[in-house]
Prior knowledge:
There is one protein chain. The protein has eight helices and twelve strands. The protein is an alpha/beta fold. The chain has two domains: 2-116, Rossmann fold (3-Layer(aba) Sandwich); 126-221, Arc Repressor Mutant, subunit A (Orthogonal Bundle), CATH 1.10.10. A hairpin with a 2-residue loop joins strand 6 (126-129) and strand 7 (132-135). The protein starts with a strand and ends with a strand.
Amino acid sequence: xxxxxxxxxxxxxxxxxxxxxxxxxxxxxxxxxxxxxxxxxxxxxxxxxxxxxxxxxxxxxxxxxxxxxxxxxxxxxxxxxxxxxxxxxxxxxxxxxxxxxxxxxxxxxxxxxxxxxxxxxxxxxxxxxxxxxxxxxxxxxxxxxxxxxxxxxxxxxxxxxxxxxxxxxxxxxxxxxxxxxxxxxxxxxxxxxxxxxxxxxxxxxxxxxxxxxxxxxxxxxxxxx
Length: 225
Ligand code: CA
């Protein structure tokens, strides 16, 4: 899952990014409001975390402009002010949630997970298709009761495909969501990772193959035929 983090204080940004990377998120950081606005309007993210007080364009304004441009990505606003007025301004601008500084990393993580599981599944950190389950808190993947031994990248790839189960995913889309923007990833790399996922997720098991190739287009994770 790819997170956009717009935070002008380098130490806070680095600390949040480090924690999120440990939790297997891909993180892109912008340190100014202008960069953040460009990224929010042009990039593909699964969640955006916007600091409220930024040089140039403030977090709430980024949020307002992103929503006006039709960006539907869940947005969490970080705010140093605890006045109710500010919270309302953030939510009115189209933010999904806000968090008051200082906050614990655990709380930030819990809020992000809550945003990611909206709107279809409010109750669980587990993703499932057929007998494949993925626990996004424990970082465990299982087929039936058998635990799958996945690398960090394989896990991110499988999580992304599971969150978009049944959808056709192009290689470009997969690269955008699963790898850092500065990683040198070619379509061949995606093929290689899909191949290794197949060897772990589908091949050892008697049931249906879940990873489907859509020839000339990309891939999907699908329990159907
Ligand atoms: Ca700030």
